[in-house]
Design a protein that fits this description.
The chain has helices at about 15-25, 40-55, 145-155, 160-175, 185-195, 200-210, 215-225, 240-245, 260, 295, 315-325, and strands spanning about 30-35, 60-65, 85, 90-100, 115-120, 135, 225-230, 235-240, 270-275, 280-285, 305, 310-315. By secondary structure, it is of the alpha/beta class. A hairpin with a 3-residue loop joins strand 11 (about 305) and strand 12. It is globular and about 55 Å long.
Length: about 325
């Protein structure tokens, strides 16, 4: 592969992309791996499985995250080995950036010139080809499925721990195979991982049937504050710093609350506004199949997927609420 040639699915086949990734893996000795900030099950699962694979191949791996592993995912095999840091100064043969629409989305833990090669693996509709090799498949429900493709291309079967992490990535990013991004390959990949000996029951019990009391308290405070707009088509919840303090919950404990918003029969869009500080609000959206969130949240420089996206608004939470309601006024005319 030529040093300056940028490979992506627009100018290369899937097989060519996977062969290029396999070639870099075989030729490189030192690797940096990171997913996006505020890591979720897919960013963690795909990174942990890849890190384990590379170590089995005798490679030296530095797996980092700028933010801590959420408490409810600390059980994931290898999670304790992830280095929590905001800066690494080493040089690497290869950097693998996972589920990030650009290089900065992983928190700038390293600069791009600290790696001889960069592999970008993502599944967002809004993305940039910042890698030397870009394996970006928006139709994939998770990056974990794309990492499984790498295993297959190298003719290596995941071990039990790797399979567990990949399965966690898929099951969390598909919302237990219930969200609109779930597809045939989601189930086929899960089936292959089951052959490795994983126990879906045990994994799902740890992920979904074990909840800290502080998180339950936060859910109670949040759901008691649920609001609607546009004839109950826009269902939203404002989660304030006071709620976090009162419940003792962490920022990551909000995962799953948005599902209650879109469960309302009349809902077209569900929204969670999370107050980070007096001038910063993180906002998450979910929508029904026919409603494209990206058409609207692009005005806030947001990104994600058609039916699951997010953005940040630099304002107080009440001002952010007003801005979002004005932007989604289009729902007023939706049938």
């Amino acid at each position: 592969m030529e040093n300056k040639k940028i490979l992506n699915l627009q100018n290369s086949s899937k097989k060519e992309i996977l062969d290029a990734i396999s070639w870099i893996i075989k030729e490189s000795e030192t690797f940096f791996i990171a997913g996006h900030t505020k890591p979720d099950g897919d960013a963690l699962g795909s990174g942990l499985a890849l890190a384990s694979l590379l170590k089995r191949l005798g490679k030296k791996v530095t797996h980092c995250s700028i933010d801590p592993v959420p408490g409810d995912m600390a059980f994931m095999p290898g999670a304790s080995e992830i280095k929590i840091t905001d800066k690494v100064t080493d040089m690497f043969d290869c950097a693998v950036i996972l589920e990030s629409i650009n290089f900065e989305r992983m928190g700038n833990i390293i600069l791009q010139n600290q790696a001889k090669k960069t592999i970008n693996i993502d599944h967002h509709l809004s993305y940039t080809d910042f890698g030397d090799v870009n394996y970006v498949v928006p139709s994939s429900s998770s990056v974990s499925e794309l990492i499984f493709d790498i295993f297959k291309n190298l003719n290596i079967s995941p071990n039990l721990q790797e399979a567990e992490n990949l399965y966690i990535g898929i099951v969390t990013d598909t919302g237990r195979f219930q969200q609109l991004n779930t597809n045939v390959n989601s189930h086929l990949t899960a089936a292959e991982l089951l052959k490795c000996g994983i126990s879906p029951n045990k994994i799902c019990k740890k992920l979904f049937a074990t909840t800290e009391l502080s998180k339950i308290k936060l859910y109670g405070l949040a759901l008691s504050n649920i609001k609607t707009a546009f004839n109950d088509k826009f269902i939203y919840i404002k989660i304030t710093k006071e709620m976090f303090a009162k419940s003792g919950a962490s920022y990551t404990d909000t995962d799953g609350i948005i599902n209650y918003c879109v469960s309302v029969p009349t809902a077209v869009v569900g929204c969670i506004l999370k107050e980070v500080d007096e001038n910063t609000v993180k906002i998450s959206f979910r929508s029904i199949e026919s409603f494209n969130l990206l058409d609207i949240i692009k005005i806030f420089d947001g990104g994600g997927h058609k039916n699951a996206a997010g953005c940040t608004i630099k304002a107080g939470i009440d001002t952010a609420e007003d801005k979002i309601l004005k932007a989604f006024k289009v729902l007023q005319g939706c049938k």
